[in-house]
């Protein structure tokens, strides 16, 4: 049993789970998946294609004929982590194929690790498959190698990420993701819904909707495709996903005015009353230097409006402290804004330069010790808000989904908690008969800084 938060970086996905079931003589591929949930979905797609061609999936280096490392390039620290993972795979296995966001900079990778077999960029599935074929030829057995209808999943069976678009049209100065993943490209509505239906039919109880900019879904379609729509494409999609009977959780939602259309769906129970909104900061000058919409006061009005429509709504966000030029007064504005916004779930990271980001050239970079001090003060405030909000839940009855059961307790999540990044609810009495994926009702009897404890009712 563990308590949250496990990691406050906003680019972390749950650890990939590999079952390791192979037949004698079957060529096997290992996978190291780093970075965000969007990258995890890319890893699932790659492994699904490989599994369909007869490859086994190895959970360790020793059982793999080659290893794919799906990299992250979000921060310089993430790049360093990716290089370290590539080095470990080379040391332990020797045959390594690199893909993902950092793969958009092949010279950066080969300069550090010249012995990698191939380097491909993000969502370049065909190139990854070609590299695997060259390194480890397929040897399928059509009578044995049957692919599950839902494909290969790297998450527990009861929840799944559902990626609805690629790329992003924003030009935030601190971010290079659009340079690596391109402009917004929304998947067709029918394709997303068909994938969701298959996942629910396979037993998935929770769909976690992800993209680089979820609320912009469909805004890149031409007039012909959007003809006849009476609401924003993301609202129509959320409504249709909500009709499938699973929990639907929305991540990475920019606070455009049309987000208001989705809040009644939450009030009506079609979609979970949960929004993951990357506010990043609150001071208009800081937001301007970030090249983000500088309307913090309008954002507070929007939050109040959302709560008027759906009082149970839970808001999660991430913030950057120590951005170049951030003064003490600007940081204090952020703390004051937090007092007003009273966000339920908050992650924060200290600004880092990223090779290729326009923010690197900004003047007045903040010293490391000041960034650390501001991070500490920010998280102290966020923790106090979280603790007070959770304490108010003691004595209430809520529905939770069971994630894991061990000898100590059942680890669950409420509708207010996304996997790995938010809190847990623990049931430590009478939990033995529970199984992952069950949705049960509990009465909350204890609260901590980030987690709850409860008993079955």
Describe, in short, the structure shown.
One of its GO terms (molecular function) is protein methylthiotransferase activity. By secondary structure, the protein is an alpha/beta fold. The protein is built from 13 helices and 18 strands.
Architecture blueprint of SSEs:
Layout: E1 28-33, H1 37-52, E2 56-58, E3 66-71, H2 76-92, E4 96-100, H3 106-112, E5 118-119, H4 125-135, E6 159-163, E7 165-166, H5 177-181, E8 185-186, H6 189-201, E9 206-210, H7 223-226, H8 233-242, E10 247-250, H9 263-267, E11 274-276, H10 284-290, H11 296-309, E12 314-321, H12 328-341, E13 345-350, H13 368-391, E14 397-405, E15 410-414, E16 425-427, E17 439-447, E18 452-456
Parallel strand pairs: 1-2, 1-3, 3-4, 4-5, 6-9, 9-10, 11-12, 12-13, 16-18
Antiparallel strand pairs: 7-8, 14-15, 14-17, 15-16, 17-18
Helix pairs in contact: 6-8, 12-13
Cofactor: [4Fe-4S] cluster
Keywords: 4Fe-4S, Cytoplasm, Iron, Iron-sulfur, Metal-binding, Ribonucleoprotein, Ribosomal protein, S-adenosyl-L-methionine, Transferase
Organism: Pseudosulfitobacter pseudonitzschiae
């Amino acid at each position: 049993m563990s308590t949250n938060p496990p990691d406050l970086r906003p680019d972390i996905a749950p650890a990939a789970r590999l079952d390791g079931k192979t037949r004698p003589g079957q060529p096997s591929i290992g996978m190291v998946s780093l970075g965000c949930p969007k990258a995890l979905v890319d890893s699932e797609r790659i492994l699904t294609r490989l599994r369909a061609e007869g490859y086994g999936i190895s959970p360790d280096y020793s059982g793999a004929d080659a290893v794919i490392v799906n990299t992250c390039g979000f921060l310089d620290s993430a790049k360093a982590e990716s290089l370290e993972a590539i080095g470990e795979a080379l040391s332990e296995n020797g045959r390594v194929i690199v893909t993902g966001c950092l793969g958009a900079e092949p010279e950066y990778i080969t300069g550090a690790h010249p012995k990698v077999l191939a380097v491909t960029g993000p969502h370049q599935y065909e190139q990854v498959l070609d590299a695997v074929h060259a390194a480890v030829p397929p040897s399928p057995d059509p009578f044995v190698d049957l692919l599950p209808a839902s494909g290969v999943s790297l998450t527990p069976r009861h929840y799944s990420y559902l990626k609805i678009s690629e790329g992003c049209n924003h030009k935030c100065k601190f971010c290079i993701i659009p340079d690596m993943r391109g402009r917004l490209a929304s998947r067709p509505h029918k394709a997303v819904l068909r994938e969701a239906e298959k996942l629910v039919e396979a037993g998935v109880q929770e769909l976690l909707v992800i993209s680089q900019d979820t609320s912009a879904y469909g805004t890149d379609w031409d007039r012909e495709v959007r003809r006849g729509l009476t609401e924003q494409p993301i609202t129509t999609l959320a409504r249709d996903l909500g009709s499938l009977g699973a929990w639907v959780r929305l991540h990475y939602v920019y606070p455009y005015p049309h987000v208001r259309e989705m809040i009644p769906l939450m009030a009506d129970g079609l979609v979970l009353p949960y929004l993951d909104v990357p506010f990043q900061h609150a001071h208009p000058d800081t937001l301007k230097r970030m090249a983000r919409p500088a309307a913090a006061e309008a954002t507070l009005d929007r939050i109040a409006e959302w709560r008027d429509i759906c009082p149970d709504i839970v808001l999660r966000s991430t913030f950057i402290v120590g951005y170049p030029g951030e003064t003490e007064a600007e940081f204090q504005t952020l703390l004051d804004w937090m007092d007003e916004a009273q966000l339920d779930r908050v992650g924060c990271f200290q600004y880092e330069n990223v090779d290729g980001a326009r923010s690197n050239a900004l003047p007045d970079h903040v010293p490391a010790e000041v960034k650390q001090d501001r991070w500490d003060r920010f998280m102290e405030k966020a923790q106090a808000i979280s603790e007070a909000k959770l304490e108010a839940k003691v004595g209430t009855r809520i529905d939770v989904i069971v994630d894991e059961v061990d000898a100590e307790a059942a680890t669950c999540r409420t509708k207010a908690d996304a996997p790995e990044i938010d809190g847990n609810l623990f049931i430590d009495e009478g939990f033995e008969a529970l199984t992952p994926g069950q949705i049960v009702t509990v009465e909350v009897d204890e609260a901590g800084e980030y987690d709850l404890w409860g008993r079955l009712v």
